[in-house]
Amino acid sequence: MNPRLPYVLLVGAAVIxxxxxxxxxxxxxxxxxxxxxPSVVEKTGGVSQSLVFADLTAEEMSQVVRYLQGHLGVPLxxxxxxxxxxxxxxxxxxxxxxxxxxxxxxxxxxARPPREALAVLYFGxxxxxxxxxxxxxxxxxxxxxxxxxxxxxGGKLPYxxxxxxxxxxxxxxxxxxxxxxxxxxAFMQQVMGYDGANLAVVTAAPRGFQSGDRVxxxxxxxxxxxxxxxxxxxxxxxxHSSLDVSQWAVSRVFxxxxxxxxxxxxxxxxxxGRVSVEKVRKAAWDGDxxxxxxxxxxxxxxxxxxxxxxxxxxxxxxxVLFQAWSFAFGLSASTGLRLFxxxxxxxxxxxxxxxxxxxxxxxxxxxxxxxxxxxxxSFGLGRYTSPLVRGLDCPYSATYVDTHALGAGLKPGRRxxxxxxxxxxxxxxxxxxxxNLQSLYYGGLVNSALVLRSIATMGNYDYVWDxxxxxxxxxxxxxQATGYPSSSFLHGDGLRYGNRLGEHxxxxxxxxxxxxxxxxxxxxxxxxxxxxxxAFEVTRAxxxxxxxxxxxxLTKKVLDTEDQAAFRLQSKMPRYIYFAANSKNKWGxxxxxxxxxxxxxxxxxxxxxxxxxxxSWARYQLAVTRRKEEEPxxxxxxxxxxxxxxxxxxxxxxxxxxxxxxxxxxxxxxGFLHIPHSEDIPNTVTVGNSVGFLLRPYNYYDxxxxxxxxxxxxxxxxQDFTACEINPLACLPKTASCLPxxxxxxxxxxxxx
Length: 753
Known about the structure:
Elements: H1 5-28, H2 46-50, H3 58-71, E1 87-95, H4 99-107, E2 116-123, E3 130-137, E4 144-147, H5 149-153, E5 157-158, H6 166-180, H7 185-190, E6 199-203, E7 215-222, E8 231-239, E9 249-255, E10 258-260, H8 263-271, E11 313-316, E12 319-322, E13 325-332, E14 336-344, E15 347-362, H9 367-370, E16 373-375, H10 376-379, E17 399-406, E18 412-435, E19 441-458, E20 461-469, E21 475-483, E22 487-489, E23 498-500, E24 505-508, E25 510-520, E26 528-541, E27 544-559, E28 566-568, E29 576-584, E30 590-598, E31 620-626, E32 664-674, E33 690-698, E34 713-716, H11 732-735
Antiparallel strand pairs: 1-2, 2-3, 3-4, 3-5, 6-7, 7-8, 8-9, 9-10, 11-12, 12-13, 13-14, 14-15, 15-16, 15-25, 17-18, 18-19, 19-20, 19-34, 20-21, 21-33, 22-24, 23-24, 25-32, 26-27, 26-29, 28-31, 29-30, 30-33, 31-32
């Protein structure tokens, strides 16, 4: 035997063992990382054109501020330290160009509209204090400004209508702490346990009963996590109408069902033993029952969605492309998320889709709760957009978009992860059919849609705003409500106004209403509004005349005027209502886009109310009007603090003008009633608290456009449906057996508060 043979055999065995080990490790170890496909390539000029709708950059905001500081001829104080008697810049946002100018640029090779900003200034240091709006341009190097206040509103804007700045709340807090609470030392120390920091204050709104009032109820809570459900029973009515802070005063005080002239009278009654005291148990810093800290330990990870071959959409600046869709997006400081130039298969179907307002009307037997009608646009649906948490607010692998906002110190701040964009597999078919009659086959399409999302935190409530783009040409606008319920101190007949959520906590009944602007351009700018529905007709059976048949038939009506197209909340609306084009599809039908609303709204407010006209958009589940540049929004940020003389009254938009073959806008209202219950503690869930609308093609195409989707599946009984070339689902074990490359978790929501 060759003496080297054992060594050769040993080396050979070692090599075989090494190879087998590598194979086993490769199977049982980490899967390969997913490979991204090349990004979608935009058509030439697409990104450049979309910038006509782009939000202001940080540099543009800074340029506007510098221009105003140097060209108005009056001293301007930073909003972060301005007194009511000062002049200050309240906000700077994009001035969206006129639609006609934009369309000439986009569609006819016209000049690009000048880029401009809209600046809102508070002039408190003038003989007649007022609010003034200036258009400033052209950006990025401003050279002019023009006062558009009278042009927009028909007159000057009274100063008392101004939305409340953060600094004014801070000044009110200082007034309470330094002057109001010290006037009742025994009560505050013995009943409230007040130490200067253990109470939080929440504002009611509007502020009074008539134009000119600026008198606000402030409700006190324990300053703990989730303080919105920890009322202490004390509420203070502050008159802060004077521009001289030293003249501010307390108008009334409320404690546990009783009203007092001021804190001194409450103190006197308390010392004399004439106050019915309900001492609230001090809550732990984490809020105890209001804590959002999980009550269970972490376990198996929840399912995570990922893109095995990378995103199938692209985001360049403010332009999004996804399969047959393209659109530009932006974020208004007051109204929040908005879309422009929405196209499907290259054809514009809508010029603008935007949120307009979110309204909540509360009931209670406490003054702060019973007088609250929040119009959140005044506070800022875009201004209070929350930084999004990766993997929870949106899928982990979503695209997160930063935005900029002008801070109270007149310096633009970057808001990290304000928006997210992602493709979402809804886990259900968009369409499918299984055939077991005659021929045997299966055909279908996964319902994978693109989502654009922002979340606005308006004090206690968080609103999740979505626009969703489906492969069949449908668009959905949806809002989901979550966050903490608002509450009042439980006393007397409180259970007439809600449910008990804690020892002293009344979850107060309230409504939610949201309003959208939908400027559809179906097959062109000029459209008509058409209603289709169904009615039963009674007829004799042709083959058996003695028998009767009740059969459904199609009803059709063209709605010619704005009055005909204004559908009150509780009125019966045609089930198919659509914007009709002047062109027809292959089968001779007018091409259209149908409006379908998901809403559970009841009454918004009795129309006899002195403030109802300020929210008159909420009278209508749907109202279609002629589009006018002078009617850009359904409401105004100035309506909150003076609803008795509203700056914008939507009801006046509806004046029976003809709407046949005109540029039309649909104003959509959706809402629901919320009666807080024990399961709203610690937080209201989004399930069941979602409303919105769908825009669906109706004879717009010759057939369902999703049949052209690359995601379609079809196989017959005679085909090898396990083969990739026949059935793409068969490829998943190979193409989706990779691991996504997730970036490290980060969050900037606690910086630059």
